[in-house]
Amino acid sequence: MLQTFDERNRNLIININGELIHRDKAGISPFDSVVQGGDGVWEGLRLYDGRIFKLVEHLQRLQGSAKALAFSQVPEIDYFIDEIRKTLDANEMRDGVHVRLTLTRGVKLTSGMDPRLNQAGPTLIVLPEWKQPVYDTAGLTFMTSSIRRFPPDCLDPKIHHNNLLQSIMAKIEANAAGADSALMLDREGFIAEANGTHVFVVQHGCVFTSAADACPEGITRDTVLEICQQNGFPVHVGRISTTDAYRAEEMFCTGTMGELAAVTRLDGRTIGTGEPGPITKALSDLYSEETGRSGYQIIS
To answer: CATH homologous superfamily for 140-293?
Structure first.
């Protein structure tokens, strides 16, 4: 899952607070909250033929996270849409694009963690890239990380914040183990998610996934659950363990960055047949159909 450079991204135009600027000249203040303490919220969006899939849902989650962090100002959805559209137009982008949207608390008067030091803000960063889904759909290898996901009483995962050190530390372990991604558990040892994706397992034709207790409320995760319900795939949301994954018939992960991808090895065990399973393939096809016919028309 190591991404490679796309030459089309060499001259990207980035949007920072409405200013369009070349990627090599873009920058934010060292006094910005996201630099000082990871004090920001973010979303990943994907552009399909001029439409951004689940755009409003993503923006509502962004607003909700900013409100939970007590940002003094939270922009309206129309503001985000206008700035995203302006940035895509500047790059002549229409399809095969991933957009990283970041909203920070803003700029501080002086270094420090106290939000009262923020006298200017928020800061909006719109970063679009030419980027196809990044997961290897032929089958991924996962390993179980020693890094645990926080529960709501430590840091509520419903806040989609920029402090991603847990994920980074778990990915370091996965890299060292030669795995594509790290499976992360909650404090009680049940599966939460992977370091950058949500996780599903299939057993006896039923699709299982963890409750959103120690993992974010995933937009792609929710879409997959909706697709299952609409197409007659039994679903169970609740606690699942690594043993459930080891003996599963299929396993797959989901996320905006890479859509759906099969997980065929976990902790040295082969999952199912070691190939993407029929339900994984069916759900992937149904997800592609959904993204192909729906979404917010942002580029005409």
So the answer is: D-amino Acid Aminotransferase, subunit A, domain 2 (3.20.10.10)
